[in-house]
Fold each of these.
Amino acid sequence: MRTIDRDDEKEAVKLIDQTLLPREYKIVECKTLDELIDAIKRLKVRGAPALGAAGAFGVVLACTNEKSKETIKTKVERLKKARPTAVNLSYGVNRTLNAAMHGKNMQEMKEYALEEARRIADEDVAVNKKIGDYGSELLEDGDVVLTHCNAGRLACVDWGTALGVIRTAIEKGKRIEVIACETRPLNQGSRITTWELLQDEIPVTLIADSMSAVVMREGKVDKVIVGADRVVKEGVINKIGTYMHAVIAKSHNIPFYVAAPLSSFDLKRSYKAVEIEERSPDELIFFGAEQIAPLEVKVYNPAFDFTPFELIAAVITEKGVLYPPLLTE
Amino acid sequence: MRTIDRDDEKEAVKLIDQTLLPREYKIVECKTLDELIDAIKRLKVRGAPALGAAGAFGVVLACTNEKSKETIKTKVERLKKARPTAVNLSYGVNRTLNAAMHGKNMQEMKEYALEEARRIADEDVAVNKKIGDYGSELLEDGDVVLTHCNAGRLACVDWGTALGVIRTAIEKGKRIEVIACETRPLNQGSRITTWELLQDEIPVTLIADSMSAVVMREGKVDKVIVGADRVVKEGVINKIGTYMHAVIAKSHNIPFYVAAPLSSFDLKRSYKAVEIEERSPDELIFFGAEQIAPLEVKVYNPAFDFTPFELIAAVITEKGVLYPPLLTE
């Protein structure tokens, strides 16, 4: 199934619980907005494009058993704030809310919201296929592509952005291998990227994040492709570690690509005006149930970082490959 | 107590089990060479200088209940191969074995070995204090120093190399803060470095390895100091991740220092001739008992990497601060 979808019969949002992968493949059903917000905060669903769809389907949940437009607006504000950094969550919420507001009564509002949410989800798949088409032209037969975090089908509704580019290239007959960085502290690379690539029988090698410099120095990497949580005026905000890989790639003359739908673009905003989510110290003090650092140690745990366009060879979108500087006027 | 020492009464090598930190502080006794080799392979004792002392005390164990010099030589070959990358293990073994060989009988050999092993251990502490003296001059009051892995007292017999520099600077009245990188995949940074710094009440902040680029970009790092497993003709071999930090530091104009005793020097050898230990895929597929990646995924897991002198501002030794290029003739 898709990463996130609606179950009409149960009137629920259903999603693949990504915190249990690769050990267990489990579908979670969220019947209330609170359940969905909790799933987002716990990263059961994550990835900028998937969060866009989650926001959209969340508005449908918000329209259930509500009597006033004002209450719905208040409720979805909480949804928008479930994770602050990716622009897609707000995008999905706002677009669906606007559609809902054209409804004359609650029943109509919910119908309009659901239509719009479905449209957003379907568009996401179509957009990713387009990103794949454009991006695959940048890859050559035999390329080894390093990626960070998970910008695959599990970060989206389906297909994926960075991994979508790889999927399309392979579909077109190119042989592509992937090096997946584990992506500390939550290991989306080891848990999710390797899992979804192996599902599709795409060759993948797992490394620790700090090994990317070594594989690049050893000539084992032809290109780097990552996703984006937000494309801003001066560059790209993405999973913590992206900036490091970009600096290292530049110093080894390896092209560094970002694959992102235009819904992740926020080009009028400076990265300085974007809230970088800081997550709990526990993510570095514990690993699962195991304590791996002193309980009293101070921790700095930003979930995202900023990479300036100077380090980015191109941004791959559904409208084509954009080469920095990206003009915002 | 020291990281590694001899218990005369029990005729055993005693060491702090570093795999249990920070949850448990436990002293392990190795009464046989096999027990010590096992402790080395499992990283109960690790760090290049500590491995030198482990090798030395191991020769004393090898001299116990043995009848021939040849058997002893064969036995210690296994000890030398317990971990291949750090030169200190071989150094400690060879030096102690040479001393032992002057003995006329087994009793004398063991005595000579023990004397030499004690000398090596004491020298290590003295050497680290000297490294601290020289290195501390490179630090300024108020500096924030980023370090990787553990080049502290637990990597040595006592005091530490990289952390020894910080300890001496603080002893001299400078205020120094440390940023410790967790050091995947075995988390020596989170498990050991933070623990030993907090024991000494030295301010420390823990980050994931991939965050070093961010803290450097944010201007939060004044200097980087790491240890070394081997200093070779063209640069330094140290814990995986070192090269990454060095590239990033260079690109942010942050001085990158290596603190290492001359016993880690192997300047006639090229890094290409040094075996880089590749450790088990399980270190990236599992975290403790928890599976975090598909069992069948391919893993690349080198334990060390090579950093060329071009990226290194200076090597701090017990004889002074050496500025590359280091002349080997």
Note: The first strand of chain B starts at residue 4 and ends at 7.
Amino acid sequence: MAKKFRGIYAALLTPFAGDEIAADKFRDNILKFNEYDLTGYVVLGSTGECVSLSDEESERLVRTAREAAAKGKAIIAGTARESTRLTVEFTNRMADLGVDAALVRPPSYFKSKMTHEALKKHYLAVADRSRVPVILYNIPQNTGITLEGKLILELAGHPNIMGLKESSGTIAFLGELSRRLPADFSYLLGHGSAFLPALLMGASGAILAVANAAPGLCVKTFRLFSEGRIEEAAALQLDLVPLNKAVMEIYGIPGLKYALDRQGWYGGPVRPPLLPLEENGKAEIDAQLRKLGLIG
Amino acid sequence: MAKKFRGIYAALLTPFAGDEIAADKFRDNILKFNEYDLTGYVVLGSTGECVSLSDEESERLVRTAREAAAKGKAIIAGTARESTRLTVEFTNRMADLGVDAALVRPPSYFKSKMTHEALKKHYLAVADRSRVPVILYNIPQNTGITLEGKLILELAGHPNIMGLKESSGTIAFLGELSRRLPADFSYLLGHGSAFLPALLMGASGAILAVANAAPGLCVKTFRLFSEGRIEEAAALQLDLVPLNKAVMEIYGIPGLKYALDRQGWYGGPVRPPLLPLEENGKAEIDAQLRKLGLIG
Amino acid sequence: MAKKFRGIYAALLTPFAGDEIAADKFRDNILKFNEYDLTGYVVLGSTGECVSLSDEESERLVRTAREAAAKGKAIIAGTARESTRLTVEFTNRMADLGVDAALVRPPSYFKSKMTHEALKKHYLAVADRSRVPVILYNIPQNTGITLEGKLILELAGHPNIMGLKESSGTIAFLGELSRRLPADFSYLLGHGSAFLPALLMGASGAILAVANAAPGLCVKTFRLFSEGRIEEAAALQLDLVPLNKAVMEIYGIPGLKYALDRQGWYGGPVRPPLLPLEENGKAEIDAQLRKLGLIG
Amino acid sequence: MAKKFRGIYAALLTPFAGDEIAADKFRDNILKFNEYDLTGYVVLGSTGECVSLSDEESERLVRTAREAAAKGKAIIAGTARESTRLTVEFTNRMADLGVDAALVRPPSYFKSKMTHEALKKHYLAVADRSRVPVILYNIPQNTGITLEGKLILELAGHPNIMGLKESSGTIAFLGELSRRLPADFSYLLGHGSAFLPALLMGASGAILAVANAAPGLCVKTFRLFSEGRIEEAAALQLDLVPLNKAVMEIYGIPGLKYALDRQGWYGGPVRPPLLPLEENGKAEIDAQLRKLGLIG
């Protein structure tokens, strides 16, 4: 059995015009991304400011992505809500729009009560009732909840739980799991500075925010790895680290949007409470893009 | 200028029948709470499993509370969403239903970007546009975000930011702020095991989940304090601690709901991902209720 | 059975001249503290930069304190080391110098292995072999280890474990324990901004760093509380908060030393890695001391 | 300029007989390790229970290691103390015994005061005065202190600061630093489950506790990597993960000692407060050793 989810997925940004979503810009961006050898797109991920959107806005983005994505490109939608009921409802609403899988981060508000058992019941209930495959999502830096290895191994036995997006980027954690997960379960790294090491340790691909800004570089790193040219791939991975750090960690989503604007794509503003990028951030991101040959 | 928010508010539970909200049970509970000397009610707070509800369910609960609450009882609604825009929209939707104030916890998903400046802009924008007074809400155990003293002092200057619910229960933090806040700003403790010490250090009242289970005891503690009978109040506070710990910390919301069921009110089930109460929890809560003379 | 440890203890600073300990200055300070109604002194506590000292320096400080302390003043020494063996050895070395009790924080380097069982065995072994009473010490902000209520209750049953210094300052935690601890077990708060609320909730006293800078104020707060004049005591407690925050939290030990220098006592420099106080810190501490009438 | 520290170093265990150090067993272990292609040994590291030892015991272990180590094997000693003064003194005491470098974790007791500036001054002072090269040591899981990339880059400019042992195992962090550090600065990973990915991303070697239990496997992984046989190396790395997790994370030092006992070397007991290994741990470690062909 092959892994269902392989290669590089871009975790798409949500374009705004003012404080309204700009579906046309979203479509234009996707049309450009279609030219790269990306496996697919994540809509309504953290990079997409999903938590800042209404259900109606979310629906509109997914429709747009489904229409704009080139044939064969997978659409994965972030569909988590804080209760099991709302998560199932929203997941199936997205399934009806044609997404290929649902990316589901854990409920996190009642932190101290999100025990192994609570998380397990939640995910099993979602997987039982979801009309599309479920991909688990570990992003403790945002949720304050860590999906433990034991839980992931147990959940991976469910026929409708097909993968994990792991955004803490802990390579040792991957090493502990990669040989113990089912053969068709996909481990996708969600960290742009460590996906090549992850591929080496058994990941089948990556879901990357930085792929918005440097899709070609991400895709080429994956291809070199697939061809066994690991040292060349490692050099590209190291090339990518400073840009990834700048647009993800230091400046965040407004930085990433700026990196798109600079390359002739549409980044635009973020929705508050996120703050706009400051001037010094622009200079640093310019420098990183220039070093990678992405702008002149 | 007097404090607007004083005395004891019950942070109401949300009753469910199966997985549906039970508005009739909610009304019945409120009618019983009306018999106590509570200042008012918080609807859609953490205790109310607010994050597990749809907007429509939330609206229905607020309508019910507004209708059932005795004359003069304040209704405060939890109205936070993750973006500024959605928070403003939902706050004013609740304002239109007649709530007296909005309790607004900070956005928390983009944790590392919720800087002093981001939180300040968010709260000021919400306060500017909200048609009801805003009460800040510090509950780091659930959000992973701490509202710093400096931020609270700055926000307290806004004419529509009228109070703080502080649920970490840190008395030293209150001591740092209580003399520096505006005279009409209300500091309300959100911790049932330390509200008497908080009153002593300058809080004007408390918003308590445990007031669902022991409204009389909470109200009496406040009254004794108001009469200067502080040592008697402290003894009652210590009486309340074991029940508060059992229903809040150890067993959580399902434990609190059970404590209502045992007293002839309606607690009922929780909505997943919260888990139901286990048998040993029932025995311990029974013991605590019995010790307080709340059940026979 | 009465509590053995009651009232206010000063957690003494360690004076340095250059990078050498200044035992003469230490003696002079104690002679001045003897004029206040303090119950006793803690030597080699966190405030005393205990971890920065050699065993020989530590021994010299304890000798000096024993000689300089007025008759009837208790000397409590911080004696923790990272292994059980070294803790017992050093505790008894201090016992031989005449200390009245040993204040023992938990081992903390092997954090993930300091389970309930490991900590329990450690403390029981130390208590069994110590020739002086042991006082547990909870200071998670420095150790990264929290002594849980259950552990404290179990250890409190040992005849040679006579108290707890609790420096997180969590009043709810005290509320959970105060009625369940043995009658002769002393709960001593180690937080200068919340000791009055702690007394109200059952603490028998406090070990305070701020008592170096404002011994009179600390002692008076305790006396007012003991006389049932609780609201007056609360007002003094609130008076003390800004100085306590300045010298403990914001500026730390160099700030506290400066506050002594300003009052004609000896503070002097800190030992690196602690940094000296910056100029703006001096101005703020001056302002706090002036507001309390401690300097002209 | 070549990296001074390359290849695999074993972070040696400290053997005890009862609660006394067993220098003879320590020597015997080293004589056996000499047969492997390890670059050298770390004495008085975390794995060596350094914080549980007296200065005299520490000295005796270093003397023994110096004598027993085969010609050309480097000896690195852990020499950190909580103050700058004590660290310098102990470092030079070890230098006098002939160690090749000092491994220095940051002071950690005064956590909130260990700012960039405080840590920088501390390390510069130690490096200025140490008679042997200093290796920085990042182990936040034990110290609660993280050495930030910016600090490491600044310190790396000091001629006597020659390397970093990085035990959090965060590969993205390595990626950020590896091209920006001086050519002769050595980055050594201190995590047995991720050292191969680290080598790929620019580390020059590793200091491994698991090398006590499986020196041959560690050394072979490094050799394969050096020969460009990266996929074979990755397979060995994955082979090693379960044993590393068992002896480091799940069971810790007592588990690692047991793994030595089972192979005919000397592990022996740990010193309290560490607890002895439980029976189920023995069975699991046996299983891991057997799977790797290390026991029959």
Note: Chain D has twelve helices and ten strands.
Amino acid sequence: NKNIQNDRKYIKNTNVRVGLPAVCFVWQIAMVVLFGVFIRYDEESDTHWVEFRRENNITSDIENDFYFRYPSFQDVHVMIFVGFGFLMTFLKRYSYGGVGFNFLIAAFGLQWALLMQGWFHSLNPETGKITIGVESLINADFCCAGSLIAFGALLGKVSPVQTLVVALFGVTLFAVEEYIILDLLHCRDAGGSMVIHCFGGYYGLAISWVLYRPNLHLSKRFHGAVYHSDLFAMIGTLYLWMYWPSFNSAITDHGDGQHRTAINTYLALASSVLTTVAISSMSKKGGKLDMVHIQNATLAGGVAMGTAAEFMIQPYGALIVGFCVGIISTFGYLFVTPFLEKYLKLQDTCGVHNLHAVPGMLGGFIGAITAAAATEAVYGAEGLRNTFDFEGEFENRTPGTQGGFQAAGTCVSIAFGLVGGVCVGFILRFPIWADPGDDNCFDDEVYWELPEDEEIVPPVLEYNNHMIHKHQEISESNFSVDQS
Amino acid sequence: NKNIQNDRKYIKNTNVRVGLPAVCFVWQIAMVVLFGVFIRYDEESDTHWVEFRRENNITSDIENDFYFRYPSFQDVHVMIFVGFGFLMTFLKRYSYGGVGFNFLIAAFGLQWALLMQGWFHSLNPETGKITIGVESLINADFCCAGSLIAFGALLGKVSPVQTLVVALFGVTLFAVEEYIILDLLHCRDAGGSMVIHCFGGYYGLAISWVLYRPNLHLSKRFHGAVYHSDLFAMIGTLYLWMYWPSFNSAITDHGDGQHRTAINTYLALASSVLTTVAISSMSKKGGKLDMVHIQNATLAGGVAMGTAAEFMIQPYGALIVGFCVGIISTFGYLFVTPFLEKYLKLQDTCGVHNLHAVPGMLGGFIGAITAAAATEAVYGAEGLRNTFDFEGEFENRTPGTQGGFQAAGTCVSIAFGLVGGVCVGFILRFPIWADPGDDNCFDDEVYWELPEDEEIVPPVLEYNNHMIHKHQEISESNFSVDQS
Amino acid sequence: NKNIQNDRKYIKNTNVRVGLPAVCFVWQIAMVVLFGVFIRYDEESDTHWVEFRRENNITSDIENDFYFRYPSFQDVHVMIFVGFGFLMTFLKRYSYGGVGFNFLIAAFGLQWALLMQGWFHSLNPETGKITIGVESLINADFCCAGSLIAFGALLGKVSPVQTLVVALFGVTLFAVEEYIILDLLHCRDAGGSMVIHCFGGYYGLAISWVLYRPNLHLSKRFHGAVYHSDLFAMIGTLYLWMYWPSFNSAITDHGDGQHRTAINTYLALASSVLTTVAISSMSKKGGKLDMVHIQNATLAGGVAMGTAAEFMIQPYGALIVGFCVGIISTFGYLFVTPFLEKYLKLQDTCGVHNLHAVPGMLGGFIGAITAAAATEAVYGAEGLRNTFDFEGEFENRTPGTQGGFQAAGTCVSIAFGLVGGVCVGFILRFPIWADPGDDNCFDDEVYWELPEDEEIVPPVLEYNNHMIHKHQEISESNFSVDQS
């Protein structure tokens, strides 16, 4: 049938039957071996904890770090798998790919993250072992977030094998830039405005730029939402929005650190919602709201507070951050994404530029300014030292200097994202990855067994359908319609 | 095209392009200013916590209130945004409005709630500042819940600007009645049967009564569910149901208080499910279950335990409460809602009368009875004092007196709901709010950019559709069908 | 109309209008009475806690068990109601039954579980009372899980009354086998590989085997997914996957016990995802992924770690477990389920054989091996004693002996599942339960009031539909199509 053949001529070979299992198996076996060599429980998750407790005069099991961080860990875990996953179900026929590949990337990446972050941060030089606890799990989830953000820019245009390559290099680059920013530059970035969002956003954009598809319009029929797919995406949005205070506070200091971070993030997010609604309504005929804005720009407040939330930015400061970044993000969806696509040949499926790259970058600079403005009068001498960790070799660093380093850290994350992304992009252009053709992007058909999508009809309607069909046949034969 | 014009004749001007952004911006700017003037971190979220800890001999960071309440806070947060939000997606074409306006109201209301509740409860007379911590965030979420309940009665019949007005006055009224009930009358109401559900329910009903639409039947085509919209609503139901123990226990006393409240709520909810299923099945031909009952009346046990759950009502007492209120709520959906609509001209979209107003009122009285029946034999002398907070000026209050005040508190909440609702209803009748016409209620089209709702069809079907269309054109021209 | 009558001839009497309410009411009243006689608050949820604290030198309210376990309890609660519930929404027209009956079974079962488990484990011989706290609630949820797993094998083929019978006997059998395995044999099984998954799986399979329907193919039109139903099921999958670390660690020892269990489960689950994807992709033309595998086999790692996760299996050990069991589970879906159906006449709707029965059994044996291999060198003397609870009459048990008992425990759970299931199956074959006919399985129509499932169309399309209809009438009359 000619018509169908025409439709199919742009399709590349998308068979992943060898590649995908091979990568998964090789990778998982490598993980088993490397975990066997390197990874052990830390003193709080080892059966020797009872002795450790006694030796360190810890009075109660409740002071195990598990009880400080596990609830936040679970919230972060939900954000990674349900939040990011369902946020990417908005396309009418790529919901399986959105939530399913997100699942695959994260499960793949978190194992590699435990190793990479372990080597950089917690390798015991004597034993040669990395010890892990609940904070390691949170950091592994964070590390995957960078690659999931990048996936947002590529959604629908890459094969599952490519997503794993994105994750493999993404996690590796993340661990390096994180080491430079947090350890060498001694920046504070608990919620990851810089190391997660800014890096992840630019990483994804750079890859997408290299993978530009001039004929993507051939997949236009799949490039949009249907009523219920947008509602599934709202599940993702809301879980990200609700749990963002946990995301930012998950690894901040015990006590006031976690407490204050949660409050600031909560407020910034609330403020983002109002300005997003305002700009979205202003931009459309009749003041109608656009689901794309509500799903995404409302979250910008959380991204932009990733660095500064643990500082004494004050509640009104958090509101101001959310206010501004909600506006900026919505404007991004309205004007910048189309501009990027038209003039910079950059196709950004989920608009990660507006939700992660720019708010993350702004978050880094907001953090720099807030840090530079810190004073003993506000923080207290001890509070200042604790908050910025002015200890050891950094004992004499001033808030002003800290601010400079924070700003430098933001630039490092952008550089890593862009340069790393361009390199990974070129790797992904090799014609071996079974990516979809230009007319088959955003289509789950390519990588998923799809159910027959006919709704069950009650017998009466079935009967009617039958009759309509019969009637068509008759009338068609009568008029001898040309079918070419 | 005449046909279409006819369809449109009932439509009012629903343009919110000026009003909605204006309200959002003005409001958010006001919040920034007021937060700047009034709101600061409390001692547990401030960097001075380390000094506070030392001064107060607090041995560990784990005794920061954050660790007592943050997991419950996050559960409450999920209830507010996903629970209430998705519960209101059950209509076939108002799911965006349900979940989206819920999101907007709550993000708008919680900021105002922090201020209002702060002025009444935690304004430091010396510094003129309100200090906030995790308990304030929980209370702010609670405060929004009242307005979200009211929104349930109005769902589909108001504009987004009107929802914000409902929230503005709702939060204000809430803070006042809460102050009267909890502080002046010294009632206990941790889970808010009185202050949240009873108030919110009657507030919404009163508004809806004033806004009665005699021609609402013109929107009948939108007034119902489709298969998947009811499934989305079940997400809301289940999250409300599962997290209700956290809702009721979030701000009760540390230790046994939170523990007992969670147990009682858990039991009452389980009991509600069984009686709801029983009545629902009895009421329909063939014993078929009705999703409206399952989605709503199963939650009545949580509402009705809002006051008494922290008392020693005993596990069997909790089961009895759930038992009765599940029956009452389901009967409400079967008989009272239709009665209210027909004879009292009260249109209650989500049936908040049956889920919040009545079970909340009953919960208030159950609390009164349980309090009046409290004895030292059961509670212990110290336990009785702690549970009812018989301290300071209330040192000599007896359980019997307390019961009387609890009952009085319930009446106060009803009065505030009804009177406040009528006033707000009249404000909402001004013809400036861009509310939908009678034939366009329950329709997302009015305030949302909707996606083209055509499912993607594989090439073969697309081809068939093409042919059907072609054939139609031909036959239409042949028979020259009249199109008027 | 003949056509319709033919369709209906296999339908049995499915009227539950008397049976369902009767069971619910009788049951719920029995629960009220039994709770009244037996159940009270334990010392941590009673108002006397303040005295208990003082007497036992507990320094802070934070050491109330509530704060150790409540966050995990809520995660388990979500798994039971949303996880299991939505996992069973995958069928195109049985989503209400999946999530709704799951809700009913669990709410019904948890009350009975509190009593049954209480009688076996915490009946105070002096007072004759059972005292409950947060750990009891977790155990009650666990106890229901066994029956919910069994429901997975029966999904779509039983009436709601039958599901309650399954739960009634399921909970009873569970309490007995749990008592034998945990108390008499002194096995460790915190996450319930044996007592929950292995038992529940074989219980469901045995019932399903007895209830074999030779003409189930008559319901073939309902036996499959549609695009969005599979996406709803992914909500269930992800919540189970994310919260499984909480499931396994909810009742393990305070401190390192909970901490280590969460880490091991997290790793095993991640590993399962990769091997599931690999096998799923290898098995299909073009390497396409199958949603059934992704929804189910990815969870096998959590099931298989239910026993061993609290032991020092080491991180790489957890990865190996996930690796193997992901493969085994996916192979089960590919080959074993069709084999069972064809040759053993065993219809297993959700494939609980592959997700629960086999991984649970393997988990039991993995636990046995890990226990037998435990040494003081790895655990420390004190750690070994704490982990395996070698105290009291079991003081002198060696790890090797413990391993033997663990293996024996697994066999006990299989035996209870199979024998109990066969008995319950025969009870369910009495013709009094109003189960659906062979041509009406997997159809919500039978037990639910369903909404009219027509999407609302905007006026223009409505107009077009109108015209199409008109045109049909005309052409039909012209060609006088035979309608018989």
Note: Strands of chain A lie at 39-41, 130-132, 289-290, 448-449.
